[in-house]
Amino acid sequence: MDIEHARFNMIEQQIRTWEVLDSWVLSTLQDFHREDFVPAGYTDLAFADIQIPIGYGQTMMEPRLEARLLQALALTGDESVLEIGTGTGCMTALLARCAKTVTSVDIHGDFLKGAAQRLRKTGVNTVTLDEGDAADDWKPGSTWDAILLTGSVPEIPPAFERALAKNGRLVAVVGQNPIMEAIIIFRDANGALSRQSLFDTHVAPLINTPSKRAFKF
Q1: Fold topology of 3-200
Q2: Which of 16, 71, 109, 165 has the most beta carbons within 10 angstroms of its beta carbon?
Q3: What pLDDT, on a 0 to 100 scale, did the predictor assign at position 1?
Q4: Mean per-residue pLDDT, 202-215
Q5: 14 Cβ contact list (under 8 Å, min separation 6)
Q6: Domain boundaries defined on the chain
Q7: Residue 21: closest CA among 12, 32, 10
């Protein structure tokens, strides 16, 4: 496989055509070696428009979804970022290229060991990897400039909204099969929250995510 040709086609045929047009995001993806973050045996599919299984019922998001979420966060290089769901470390590495620091949390220690090796190999040193169940919260009282949930949730846990710093944004996929959508939540300089729908998509649920609260009469 001609890796550089495959990377070019991924960007031009998948990512640009899915409304990812931010020049900084496209430049980041052009220089990023996604093939270093796929599981063993999947190198030939590193640039394919598919979700790649990574174990424990979880998957690596397709490239266009990673790109669209990264674009939505609109990172400038000065942010502290919280990522819930490290996986192979692919999205973690992309976030690290666009932010000041990244804290990435995963419930599976095996994922973190692999991600740490990949991040170290590719020279990423602004990431803190933590093991734990962060489906509902992480380090209460802490705040971040940007938060990304890499697994879907039926609704946004309120603790993550509270963890947003002023002028912060949270991006997540919300809903349940068969209807899910990517959304972004903003906290303005006065502390008020607003929410915007971005696009329809589908990702595996975040492990141990709280169930959607039932409506009571």
Answers
A1: Rossmann fold (3.40.50)
A2: 71
A3: 81
A4: 78
A5: 49, 62, 63, 64
A6: 3-200
A7: 12
